[in-house]
# Entry
Amino acid sequence: MCQYCGCRDIPLLRDYIAEHERSTHSGEEALRACERGDFDAAREHLSSMADELRAHWQGEEQGLFAVLRREELYAEHIDPLVAEHRELAGLLASVDLTKESDRHRIREALDELYVHIRKEEDGLFPASLTELDGDEWDTAIDAWHAAHAGREMIASVDGIST
# Structure
């Protein structure tokens, strides 16, 4: 993600970016565990990835995506992203890591997830900076909180809690 648009300074977007990083890290750890033949650890990492993404997708889809989707231009970009969410969720729920073919599917899915994340972080997130008004940001943030019950947003870099 670029460092100049200011996305990382917006609490909601900063949290979504951190969730992307945690999810891909879990996926990478799962693949490394598979390479070692430690399928129990791999399943735990994929389970963590699925849990992280479940809340992430709920918050995105019911918040940021919902308010951006009001504009037809963004809807045509959001709908395929939501379909990708569903496809990955299905794979994570059904994969058998003891099968080489499924490990290959996870490798491919992780590569696709990186592309998916770039679409969000380099496209939709910067667009939201100029498109959303105060009420829409409130809606998007409320959806994040609903999807992440019991969690707080990451405190800002300067130590002020968000």
User: Anything to note?
Assistant: Residues 12 and 43 are 29 Å apart (CA to CA). The mean pLDDT is 91.
